[in-house]
Amino acid sequence: MIGRLIDGVPARGLILLGLLMVAALVAPLFASDYILTVLILIFYFAYIGQAWNIMMGFAGQLSLGHALYVGLGAYTAASLYVHFGIGPWLGLLVAVPIAVAAGAFIGFLAFRFRVGGVYFAILTIAVAEFARVGFDHLSWTAGSSGLFLPVKQYATNDLWSLRGRPVMFYYLLLAATALAFVGCRALLKSRMGYFWLAIREDEEAARSAGIDTFRYKMIAVMISAGMTSFAGVVYAFYYNNLFPEQVFHISRSIEMILAPIVGGIGTLFGPVLGAFLLTGMAETLTGTLAALGVDIPGAKQVFYGICLLAVIVALPDGVWPWVARRLGLTERNK
Amino acid sequence: MPLEIYLNVAIGGVLTGLVYGLMALGLSVIFGVVRVVNFAHGEMMTIAMYIAVTLFSAFHLDPLVMLVPIAAVLFVFGYALQKALINPFITRPEHSQFLLLVAVAIIMVNVLLILFGPDAQNVQTSYSYDSFQIGPVIVDATKAYAGLAAIVVAVMLFAFFQYTHIGTAIRACADSYTGALVVGLDVKHLYALTFGLGAACVGAAGVMLVLIVDVTPPLGPAYTLLAFVIVITGGLGSMPGALIGGVLIGLTEAMAGLLFTPSAKSMFAFGILVLVLLFRPQGIMGKRSAS
Amino acid sequence: MTALLSVDNISKRFRGLLAVDKLSFEVPQGQIFAVIGPNGAGKTTLFNMIAGVFAPNSGGITFAGERIDGLSPDKICRRGIGRTFQIVRPFPALTVEDNVIVGALLHCQGVDDARVHALDVLRRLDLYDKRTQRASGLTLPDRKRLEVARALATDPKLLLLDEVMAGLRPTETDRMVSILQELNRDTGLTILLIEHVMRAVMALAAQILVLHHGAAIAEGAPEQVVRDPAVIHSYLGAEDI
Question: What ipTM does the predicted assembly reach?
Answer without folding.
Answer: 0.90
